[in-house]
Amino acid sequence: MKKQEIFDSYKNNIMPTYTKTPLIFIKGKGSRLWDIDHKEYLDFFPGWGVGNLGHCYPKVMQAVRDQVSKLIFIPNNFFHIPQAKLAAEIVFRTFPAKVFFCNSGAEANEAAIKFSRKFGASTPLSADGESSRTIGKGRFEVITFENSFHGRTLATLAATGQKKYQSGFDPLPEGFKTVKFNDINAVKNAISDKTVAVMLELIQGEGGVNLADKDFVLELRKLCDEKNMLLIIDEVQTGIGRTGKLFCYQDYGITPDIVTLAKALGGGLPIGMMIAKKEIADTLGPGMHASTFGGGLVICKAALGVLRGIQKEKLLQNASKISEYIFQKLNELKNKYPVIKEIRGMGLMIGVELNQEGKSIVEKCMEKGLLINCTHDTVLRLMPALNTSKKEVNKAVGILEEVLRGN
Hints:
CATH architecture of the largest domain: 3-Layer(aba) Sandwich
Strand content: 15-25%
Mean pLDDT: 95
CATH class of the largest domain: Alpha Beta
CATH topology of the largest domain: Aspartate Aminotransferase, domain 2
Structural class: alpha/beta
Number of domains: 2
Radius of gyration: 22 Å
Low-confidence stretches: 123-136
Number of helices: 12
């Protein structure tokens, strides 16, 4: 198809649920992409963190090729080796737990919400005083935070602490309280006899790259223990090495009750996962939850390739080293250009807050061959791959400086 035919097909045949950028990519390798006109781009925002290892990572490609030549699909009422291996790898790298496989971050968070409600439904009661049908009498409320983002399903949308995403979709499911981020007293004041869990992003990506304070997280862990509440850590963006540790909660010295994963785990293929502590993991039994394509053979092989690549190529160490370097280079820009208000983030999840809107800067960077993102109108967001080199950082920062100089 020619370019205009592609654009017309999207316009005529695909729902307009995305703000489209007029680029058509046909090839990728590492941190580089090529469009239909063979122009090369440096990708410093690969799929909202999906591409933690860049595009077409060799170990992922090899794993996928190997599996598709043997068997592509088997339903989840049968056993298969890649799923068993991936579950064991994840549990080995986290804490004593069991996992639930699904297809996306929203699905993983939906599973965590459903899990917490089942966990809190301790006492059944008669719905009408006579019928044998029962409903949960116990706890079901989940506390979430302002500027959070947990997904686009109705329940995860209700959990999301940003009104702009919720507008037009009322009535949303009940059972969610949104409080101020990094405020332990706000959490305490929101707790009722119906509260069963707290759901938290340690770094709010869509919220503007806001970091949770370590003391706040430690107090939150203690509070959840005291109140027998579940601490759910949403690592959909931060997981799989983004912060320099395999999981961001490891930077905070806590063990969550539930962790949700997606994006980077599949190396570009769709996967989601809920990880629950072993002592509570059997809260969901047979028939209580499911996902037809969750944990399929091909995707599990791809995820195993991701984990093995991170380990064998020491990419966590590289991420930490490159993080230090890119923060240094960005702070040099901050000292030169007053438009930059603050540089913040952790590892390779970086926010550059401006004192003006950032959309035009993103567009001008794209014109010069650099792909970045803007969130919350004024925060440039950079999430380069864990195997990014200093040479690539220099090129990216150089393009950003060209744009800032001419802005």
